[in-house]
Amino acid sequence: MISNRMGEVLARLDLHEDRPTDVLGAHCTEALGVDHLVVSLALDEEFGASGRGMTFSGADFMAARERSAPTPRTAAGEQLWSTSRTGSAVDDLQFTLGEGPEHDTLRTCRAVLENDLDAVDPDRWPTLLPALAELPVRALFCLPLCLGGITPGVLTVLRETPGPMSGQQMEDALALAEAITFHLLTGGADPLDAWIGPQCSGELHRAVVHQAAGMVSVQLDLPLDDALARIRAHAYRCGEPVTRTADDIVNRRIRLSHDPPARDLLLGPPPDDDPSGTAPPAGGPPADDPPQTPRE
Amino acid sequence: MTREQQLSAVFVEVADSLIDDFDLVEFLQQVCAHCVDLLDVSAAGILLVGHDQALKTVAASDENTHLLELFVLEVNEGPCLECFRTSEPRINIDLCDPRATTAWPAFAANARKSGFRTSHVVPLRRRERAIGALSFFHTGTQPLTPADASLAQALADIATIALLQQRDLDDEQTEKAQLQRALISRIVIEQAKGILAERWQTTPEAAFQALRAHARNRQLRLTECSRQIIDQTFDTNLIPPPST
């Protein structure tokens, strides 16, 4: 049995009257007794240019630093909605690094339940775990948004304290995942309207990243997926959120160079000691440093 | 195999059909084959209604051309069509009986010519409506017992479950494809904004306004325009750039 409070939330979601984001945003974390929620959608690779190679796996990320190295591809997610900046950051990190529980859930269609992120084997998500450690998130649960044989997305439930979800919480979370799946799959011609607004005015959380990919693809004459990989690599190397890197590119504060990331230009007055203007971004670690924490 | 073993084999096959990828036509052929064994009839076939509301033969217990011709005939006249329309079974039809020969003259004559004396038909039902029929022929005249008639209907129901399951899966795939298209469409537009912004040295917002105005004027779909820009199959010089 789902709890009364979750029952009320789902009943309102079912009515399709209010925007799902309003219904869920206002009451959902409270009804579930957790801190953050994120909904991400699967992005099938078969769907042409834009969907191709949105990510490559984090384990191979460092090995694939060289631009010429083949970039392994895995299924990717696109963030649809999140209750908080922390929730968004957890999803952005997985997008940037190309590994994490969301990827695992989308690939296997199975839930990933990590009661204590500190206790996870460091080799499981070698680049993600150190980055996550800097965020106020100690327990993470990824539930597949699945219906029959298909998994169109993943619901991520985050808590700032470690520990398993109670049986009631799990039942509520599964019911929520089911309701979201149903809402998404029965949302008419454009199921995203209800979540992020109509096509001309609504924006995906990572809209700026895709815009930046378009710009970089022209600047460097690269395919879009390679351009996106460069942006992700830059964000990873500088230890900043991929949305910030993208925002800097779109607003022409940085311009990625043709050469590997170490030579990326920081626009504006070059530092005094580097008249060539090819200094790495201020504060950016050398390429072999471990990833830094994204700034919130 | 004993009758019990045969029955359990059918149920195992059905269970498989509900969890794994399976070939629907092959499954329906097997149901027909099981019918012949279990009900001691000479031949069995499954007819389904198509989008055009006409019955079509989708499976038969053997590829005997006379049998297949009979099923073709049944599309226009015969107990199958009647069963499909009424959703009621017809058991123990004597093909020599004047009631059969006057109701379905061509069908009855052809069935007799193929050596059949008796026919039965049960509907493939979804709630009250029939979506098809399971048809049987026998060269002899011994009637189906009430227990056999129930089993015949159960086998038809099993075929229906497998069919509906397959249709649901197809629907889910369609819905997921729709969701994917919506998502890809958003991403493609953002990427096109960036490409145009860089070509024109403007902001993505200004580039978008110009792109949208162009698409409206030419009555083009924004997503389609954007995708062509990305694929470089669209000359962006045709779009008036923003004045700034």
Q: What is the C-level CATH assignment of the largest domain in chain B?
A: Alpha Beta
Q: Could you name the CATH topology of the largest domain in chain A?
A: Beta-Lactamase
Characterize the biggest β-sheet of chain A: 5 strands, antiparallel
Please, what is the CATH homologous superfamily of the largest domain in chain A?
GAF domain
Number of helices of chain B: 9
* Average residue pLDDT of chain B: 87
Helix content of chain A: 25-40%
Query: Strand order of the main beta sheet of chain A, please?
Result: 2-1-5-4-3
> What would you report as the Rg of chain A, rounded to the nearest angstrom?
20 Å
Span of the ends, CA to CA of chain B: 84 Å
Helix-strand blueprint:
The complex is a heterodimer of chains A (296) and B (244).
Chain A: H1 4-15, H2 20-32, E1 36-43, H3 58-61, E2 76-82, H4 85-97, H5 101-108, E3 112-114, H6 128-132, E4 139-147, E5 150-159, H7 167-185, H8 193-196, H9 207-219, H10 224-238, H11 242-250, E6 254-255, E7 265-266
Antiparallel strand pairs in A: 1-2, 1-5, 3-4, 4-5, 6-7
Helix pairs in contact in A: 1-2, 1-7, 9-10, 9-11, 10-11
Chain B: H1 3-19, H2 24-39, E1 43-49, E2 55-60, H3 65-74, H4 79-86, E3 90-94, H5 98-103, H6 105-113, E4 118-126, E5 129-138, H7 146-200, H8 204-217, H9 222-231
Antiparallel strand pairs in B: 1-2, 1-5, 3-4, 4-5
Helix pairs in contact in B: 1-2, 2-7, 3-6, 7-8, 7-9
